Amino acid sequence: MKVVILGGGIAGLTIASLMRKKKWDVVVCERSSEIFNRGHAFLMHGEGLSPIQDLGIPGRTELKTEKINFFSLKNINGREIKHVQLDAWHCVKRVDLIQYLYDLLPYEAVIEGRDFSHFIYDSGKAIAAVFTNGQIEYGDLFIGADGANSKVRETMFDNIAFSATEVKEIVGVAKYNIPMESGGQTFRKYQQKDASIAFGCIPASDSETVWFIQYDAKRYHLQDNNTPALETFTKGLMKDFPKEVQAVLKANNFGSTYIWNTRDFDLLPSFHKANVVLIGDAAHQALPFTSAGTTNAITDAQTLVHCLSTYDEMEKAFTKFYQLRAEEVNNHVLLGRTLKDIFLNPQNVDDYNIPVPLIVKKPKPKSAKQKKVVTITYFTDPICSTCWIIQPLLRKLKLEYDEHIELEYRMGGLLPSWENYDRGIIKKPSDAAQHWEEVSMKSDMPLDGDVWLEDPLHSSYPPSIAFKAAQIQDNDKAILFLRRLQELVFLDKKNITKWEYIEHAALNSGLDSARLLLDMPQKARLLFQEDLALAKKLNVSVFPTLFFSVGPENFIILKGFQPYEKFEEVLVEMIPEIQKSSFHANPESLFAQFHNMTEKEFAFLSNNTRTDSAAMLQRLETEGKIEKKESKNGMIWINKMEK
Asked: Alpha carbon of 43 to those of 94, 178, 264, 485: distances in Å?
């Protein structure tokens, strides 16, 4: 079977490489001879980048990318509205990606200067593509990868209506190095809401920054289409924006800057007709607010090759391709429109509810709990050492009884301050230091009490209030946030009352740290006071304290450290017919479930001896699947298999 690919952009070159890897006969027909000179750079998610990198040939140049770790949205006065950690996003220069893809193909596989005109048909199927220069290319399968203004699509569907251009983008690249924040590179965006103007900048390399301006096309007009006029217009739009924006524009070459008239179209009823199929922007186009275009083009290519390899009949392969891709790309179209409407009508949403302008990974669906459920109200504290050493038990409880329990986290307020503090043997920070060392030795869980000697916490209230602020955003992420706070204080000796460590834990847990900071002083503090009032009402004085209940009158209390068998005993008393779930206890499965584990946790969950567990962990480290982070009284092992 001979495949003719019409369009030598990213979608066309990607699918050509994937097909040639399967030894298929492929030719790429590209209309332009200047394809390397078009475009600047773009964001790509790891899901789109991975299949590209897998095509690499040993010994050849690897694809250059710049990892983008964070997204920050500020108003033009510099106040941060949103600050989140990003998952597997990279900035890629278009010229680098095109060159990388070209190098994967033999010279004769790509023919430039072929501007598609029409098909020659026989018995309802295309048998050849005709180009405006008179050349003809015969084939069995034709793939339209010729972009948003696809001529191939025009031969297949009538009356494809593009949306009106309501937002325009000015795009450029500047010889400017944006300072890196701690933890990595940041996609920065500044927004003047009342004027519907935004500026974004993304590091493309250590010396280049790709930038864009989005503006309301009805309110602002560029009269003359020339470089001086564009520069004047751009700087006029940005006159009230911060110094960093002015610095990027000052370093910019406006000779290569262009205006993009953004638009999209509704989902097509199909991506194929007979033996002609569309991929990438030719098949679907979302507004650029989502940064979905390149990732979608590559995912299309990968999915179509999979379908063609799976099904003998072309029609079945094309139908399955549409089924696998239509819902997702349509969601991106709808998301782009939502973000556009928010941009043009800023009064309809408050600052902190503005979505991150990127596609997000599809969340795993949560199964509804159909069986009888025990509510566990768990009173804890971020600096409670016993709450730390029961982590292995809580994790196993989730693995074996998750469908039967609802775990509700409450903050207990262990350390209001050191003034007149008296809890048994602990009366001052040095007492806490000694106590932690003893707990670590007895429990076999790593705790480093030196934090109380080097940078003692004055109270446990700030991280507790931060946890309540995290719960406002997302309860599951709040639990990850609490775990990260515990790791910082128990293993890394960090004073988690300080904002820098609270923010680090928040970003690392997928939370919006700007929203967290906004919610802490009032909303979260009130929620924390409610927890303290409930703890007082229930006479909670020991941490952890867990209330197991299946109704208002039927509850059992566990206080302090308890063996795992005691947890199970209570659950059986509450629900006599309860059955524990089995789980995969192999290392790969456990690390997929829990991003990191102490040696005690791994041994407990995998049901292995400490000696056998240590050998398994060392093997995984040697294989590059996990890495260890050492602390004074033990270590924690971190999953690298997801990255």
From this structure: 10, 16, 19, 31
